[in-house]
Amino acid sequence: MAKIRLFIEHPLAEGQAVPLNPDQAHYLASVMRQGPGGEILVFNGRDGEWLARIERLAKRGGDLAALRQTAPQLDPPDLWLAFAPIKKARTDFIVEKATELGAARILPVQTDHTNSERIRQDRLQAHAVEAAEQCGGTFVPEVCDLLPLSRLLDGWDGARRILWADEALAGPAETLENLPRGPWAILIGPEGGWSEAERRRLAAMDCVTRISLGPRILRADTAAVASLVLWQARLGDWR
User: How far does the chain reach from its first CA to its final CA, in angstroms?
Assistant: First the structure.
């Protein structure tokens, strides 16, 4: 079975011709040393995973031919991850692990104590694509642009519950045993912690559930992974 996997933005079906952009053609020809006749795996986030044969590679692009489906489309549960961006490499880590762990949407949020005032949304989206290619997933979550937490909460649909990982509750870890299934979002705060105004607003929202992630205060990137694992094991598609 082919080991190379690429995310492509094109419909997939048996016999379908699939165009490659210049970056993909360069990657296959110059990095992976592939040529016409080689076989790779491709997915588009909608049609599952497909085995494809390389038909042509050139500087300006290339072409594949879709041969057969190798895995059905597997969409993640309806789970969002909202987090305050931190240092560049650790923000990249959060996006990568959220993709691997099955987040359906990733929302960087600007809080009162967020250290990063801007992000490169296109770069983070590329990290999500790379993570999906590496982990064998068939879905790439949308990485949204940075949004103030207050604006996100202003338009919040109360039908989507929020799992608030609150470091102030450090103690025995929660099990989520009594929480309902359905659409959820996990909320991870900044390195500097939540402001009192943010705490009051979140505590006043009926759709918010505060949880502890154990007896130690976790770094933001660790807290994101721990929360995703906890939710997936109890309410997601790990059951």
Answer: 28
Q: How far apart are CA 200 and CA 59, in angstroms?
A: 56
Q: Copy the structure tokens of residue 127.
A: 């990290």
Quickly list H helices, 82-120.
88-100
Question: Which three-class secondary structure state does DSSP give residue 201?
Answer: helix
46 within 8 A of 8, measured Cβ to Cβ: no
CA dist 128 and 140 (Å) reads 6
User: How far is it, in rounded angstroms, from Cα 223 to Cα 213?
Assistant: 7
Average pLDDT over every residue of 22-51: 96
- Whether the per-residue pLDDT at 197 is higher than 60: the answer is yes
Q: Is the pLDDT of residue 173 over 80?
A: no
Distance CA 175, CA 91 (A): 26
Residue 1 has pLDDT above 70, yes or no: no
**Separation of alpha carbons 59 and 24, rounded Å:** 10
Q: Is the pLDDT of residue 124 over 90?
A: yes
